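Worked example 2:
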Amino acid sequence: VSSSMAVSGDLHFVWYGFAVQLISQFAECSRNVMGEFVLSGNHMKLDPLSYTMFVAPSCLCMLLVGLASSWDPNVPQAFCNWWHYLLPNAALAFVLNVTVATIIKEVSAVGFVLAGIVKDIVLVVASCA
């Protein structure tokens, strides 16, 4: 609701972008709640590394759909040119996903979201200084 109020006066408002943002927020919230259930639930109690292995295939499927819908024939050549940047980036993303799973397991999904909000506030305040 707050996003729609913030952009309602924009002359170039695009409903498709709004729908994508709405769906992505719903997916992120669902992932956090599912993560809390799977990491600290009574039926399944996974460790963060196993949870990352559990979630990675579904994330890959969604990314492949996005790749297929925006495919450019220059992608393989670009990959060959930029592989030395992409491999460390992939390793960092893996470590970040395991860290997120650890935070969700130790704190909760709500604690993870609150930590993200505090992080955003600190970044804005630090960028103003």
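The mean pLDDT is 87. Helices lie at 2-7, 15-40, 48-69, 75-106, 109-128.
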